[in-house]
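Before relying on records like the one below, remember that each one covers exactly one chain. Contacts with other chains, cofactors or solvent are not represented anywhere in the record.
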Amino acid sequence: MRYRVLFVDDDANLLAGLRRTLRGLAPQWDMSFVESGQAALELLAAEPFDVIVTDMRMPGMDGATLLNEVRQLYPAMLRIVLSGYSEMESVMRTVGPAHQFLAKPCTS
């Protein structure tokens, strides 16, 4: 089974780095990358995903809002926050809607 994973971050360079770092997992993961919460919701409405990994600080819709929407619309989806330590207050708002927290910067 290939897991479908959606990565959401407004930093295009970070998404490109994740794409490069994780390309070895392509046989097991079908990965998509978008730069906003709104784009994530649009893609989720069109295609099924197993996991969402999102940044917290994004213009427009922040990660907490996105994860709350995802929790309501797709309760079985695994929800992961990818965030810097300096954003702990906003990370704590996602205690309910997130399953896991990963700290930036990520290294392989």
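The domain at 3-104 is CATH 3.40.50.2300 (Rossmann fold).
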